[in-house]
Amino acid sequence: MRLFSTKNILGEIKKGLSTLALGLLVAGTAQAEIIDFQAHANQCNTVLSWTSDGNPDIRSYEVQKSADGISFTTLTTIRRGNGNSYEFTTRQTEAQMRYRIIENHDSTFPTASTIRIVKSECNTGIIIDTPAIGFYPNPMLASIGGDLHITLENEGAKMLDIQITDITGRVILKQNNELHRGLNQIDMNVGELAIGTYLIVTSADGAAPKANRFIVQK
Q1: Which residues, including other chains, have CB under 8 Å from residue 183's CB and lie 6 or more apart?
Q2: Is the pLDDT at 21 greater than 80, yes or no?
Q3: Which pLDDT value is given to residue 34?
Q4: What pLDDT score was predicted for residue 132?
Q5: How far apart are CA 75 and CA 190, in angstroms?
Q6: What is the pTM (predicted TM-score) of this model?
Q7: Could you say which of 46, 56, 149, 186 is the most buried, measured as most Cβ atoms within 10 Å of its Cβ?
């Protein structure tokens, strides 16, 4: 009969636990098999693109974002396709956001790409709750007159109320417009306005009004 000392048994247990801990540590910090991960702003959107090495063990990719680089939320999950190149576009109105790609594997722990920081190019003038609104021309030439063109990327509002006021708040022009989801362009005739400074005041679905200044000049 073979005898084992308590000391030998404890030594083997410690050795086994150390090996297991080292394996978990390596697996938990493994680098993603992403060859190239890029992120860039495109007006009010951010375009993410990445290339994988084609590892067949990859099951899916999670696109995640974070404001602080610590707490991440998943925007979407994309299953591995036949090709190695992927692209995803998301709307970004925040001034700055961090993005990363998580690779989910069939037989190992998930792995994460490097983090890309994107500064938004979303500069559209007035922001009213969810919709972002811009207008042009500003300044407007009195000799030409014509329409003020208002653009709106709408995610759910039904109506937009537009008022043109002088700097004292007196309403000079008013227009109500039905909105559809997506990009809206609204034309408002301001050709009769005299030279001066005005406010364009907007409110979507009765939300708190927002204002911005525009000028009519010679």
Answers
A1: 151, 152, 153, 154
A2: no
A3: 83
A4: 59
A5: 42
A6: 0.45
A7: 46
